[in-house]
Fold this protein.
Amino acid sequence: MKFGIAGNLQKQGLTQLVKVLVERFDREGVDYVIERALGAHLKGKKKLGSLRGNRLVSARNLAKSCDLLISLGGDGTILRMARLVAPLGTPILGINLGKLGFLAEVSLEDVNACLTEILKGEYLVVERMMLQAVTSTSAKTYLALNDIVVDKYGTSRVLDLETYVDREYLATFTADGVIFSTPTGSTAYALASGGPIVTPTNRSIAISPICPHTLTARPVIVPDDSVIRVKIAYAPHKVHVTADGQDDALLNAPTEIKITKAPSVARLVKRRHSSYYDLLRKKLRWGTDVRNQGKR
């Protein structure tokens, strides 16, 4: 098996973790490549100075240069990697150097044990649906593992977002915006906006208005094969479209955004004993009395 290594250059502990991985791979004769930007970062810090040039590949070529990609950072790093490698189906192992980490669930203390399991073939690969969005003013496709967000930009005034599902009129949300999330993204921005937690195996898209001016406006869950259209006839400034909070565009009204399930999926590496419900309890601290936090 050939590994790829990529990471968030801003994360504390990244350099040391890459050093641990590379030393183990070199010692055990495991083949690997490193994202070029990460390799340059390591050389700049005078770490792994003997790293051969043929080990370095561009982000664009990562997916076809490895059998499994190790993503070092937080969930944001996995979201970035997913957009790069999902079209070719390369599995992603997320190692958490961030905070909450719903996707990058492998902790630092579990890295070596997890790698041993993978090298023995004792792991699972789960598929997570992704969304894509296209606009009426551009040929570009926006790909997201968590969510597509349509919201206001550069103004405090709300938008009127005329929303259709499979050509049927749903509602006009007078709001700051609308979040269109996958089940994976239900624990991200959508959750913070009052949306439901949706287990990853559900085949659905959640539509969650952001700060709606109508108290009866609530999240709606539709089938994953739905074609969703959002029409905005007027905006006081710009209309903002974002994929996973990273890839975005500013549009002039009138405009229309179409959101559908993407043809590709993200493939995430999971340990055999891991459980989504265990993850929820751990990350959201269910069963923990937060009133006792910080008490001696």
Residues 130-264 form a domain with the Tumour Suppressor Smad4 fold (CATH 2.60.200.30). Residues 42 and 48 are 6 Å apart (CA to CA). The first strand starts at residue 2 and ends at 7. The chain has a mean pLDDT of 92.
